[in-house]
Amino acid sequence: MHDHNAFTMMELLLVIALVGLLAYVAGPSVSGILGDWEFQNARQKLEADLTSTRYQAYSLETPEIITLNASTYDLFDGRSVTLPYGVTFADLTSSEVAVTIPHTITFDKFGGISDSIGFSLQRGGTTVQFSVNTLGRVTQ
């Protein structure tokens, strides 16, 4: 009688093939979940940065700007934030004028803006609408 305490080469190859098959099937699903998470993170960060810019203008009593580009935005303190891959700004509208990218939003010393603005943050088929009213309040 032989006592075998090891796996055969065939058993190891079968396990490796099954793990590879599972990774192939689950890969796109995991990728989609990560992309959704990145989009939600970008949405929350943008809202926080818009609100922070507004409060900075109000607290220092000086105009502060944030510039929206196609896939980045520039903050009042000189930092530039790059949106995750596939996330872009779109559909900018204003009550007074046509808005194009790049567009600068200037918060006055009271934290307001001269003209309400609306825009979308989008990734694939997912779109989140933002608006900033003349008082500088940011809503989604």
Can you put this structure into words, describing what you see?
This protein has 140 residues and is α+β, with helices and mostly antiparallel strands. It has one helix at residues 9-60, and strands spanning 64-68, 72-74, 80-82, 87-94, 103-107, 117-123, 126-132, 138-139. The chain has a four-stranded antiparallel beta sheet, with helices on one face. Strand 1 (64-68) and strand 2 (72-74) form a beta hairpin. It is elongated. The mean pLDDT is 83.
Tell me briefly what this model is.
With 140 residues, the chain is an alpha+beta fold. The protein is built from one helix and eight strands; from the N terminus they run αββββββββ.
Secondary-structure-derived class: alpha+beta
Strand content: 25-35%
Q: How many H/I helical runs?
A: 1
Uncertain residue ranges:
none
**Helix share, percent:** 25-40%
Mean pLDDT: 83
Total strands:
8
Helix-strand pattern: HEEEEEEEE
- Strand numbers in spatial order across the main sheet: 3-2-1-5
Radius of gyration over C-alpha positions, nearest whole angstrom: 24 Å
Which overall shape is indicated by the principal axes computed on the Cα atoms?
A: elongated
Termini separation: 73 Å
How is the main sheet built? 4 strands, antiparallel
SSE blueprint:
Elements: H1 9-60, E1 64-68, E2 72-74, E3 80-82, E4 87-94, E5 103-107, E6 117-123, E7 126-132, E8 138-139
Antiparallel strand pairs: 1-2, 1-5, 2-3, 4-6, 6-7, 7-8
